[in-house]
Amino acid sequence: MTSSVPTSNRIRVGSAPDSWGVWFPDDPQQVPWQRFLDEVAEAGYEWIELGPYGYLPSDPVRLGEETARRGLKVSAGTVFTGLHHGPAVWEKTWAHVADIAALTRAMGADHLVVIPSFWRDDKTGEVLEDRTLTAEQWGDLTTQTERLGREVRDRYGLRIVVHPHADTHIDSEENVSRFLDATDPDLVSLCLDTGHYAYCGGDSVKLIETYGERIGYLHLKQVDPEILAEVVADEVPFGPAVGRGVMCEPPGGVPALEPVLAAARRLDVDLFAIVEQDMYPCPPDKPFPIAARTRRFLRSCGA
């Protein structure tokens, strides 16, 4: 046995409903949740995320039975927030968060992925608000995110990991750094999505090396650089860009995942690395072969 084996085991690989083209709780273009669970297990993954709340059964007893008999465990839930709008949206935000956090905790997971709200609609492209935050909005974003981190920790024992995302205000290297520098490391960690960060011009390895203590979770994803150049030049919203295939199957895109995983291993902490290849909408038979090939590829990278 080589010395690298225990280290590589510190990265626990999983997948998510996103990799099966699931973006919504209920949508006729998506595969049934039973098929997702069957196929994600068959593809060789042990860990999953909950995906959009209501897609998988929200009764923890039933979900626990369905995952256990397939050898699956839950790594995280996901919530969507608009915390830069300040205290006025807190009650609405908490109403969204509470049920998801309760199910996440009941499933034995420790993380809650927090995705900021979009400044333009990911389907229609309608501009919903200014893509640049004011100083006051930045202040609200950071203080309200810390509040969320504290409440989720104290009430549910979960740690929030904030997910930089295309077409949100936490996207580029500049904005991610600004956000991290202004938030308390004890309350706020980062979910580094390698695809979204590359989509927005960031370098994942550099981010891990610079802010290693803030990296609490990974989403593994790649972008097709040629399609990315087109969607950036044409100012295409994120949803239609996914429809064009901007998120592609590893190892065919950027960033290279081997250096990202190597940098993550050097942190010497336990991390989840969840595959998320955005594919909405997609034919129902498309995800499984990709998921299986991706799992084999990640094994070749030591994960």
From TrEMBL:
Q: What is the lineage of its organism?
A: Bacteria, Bacillati, Actinomycetota, Actinomycetes, Kitasatosporales
**The species this protein was found in:** Streptomyces scopuliridis RB72
* Pfam families reported in the protein's UniProt record: AP_endonuc_2
Kindly provide the name given to this protein in its UniProt entry.
Myo-inosose-2 dehydratase
User: Where's the Xylose isomerase-like TIM barrel domain?
Assistant: 37-300
Q: Which domain of life does this protein belong to?
A: Bacteria
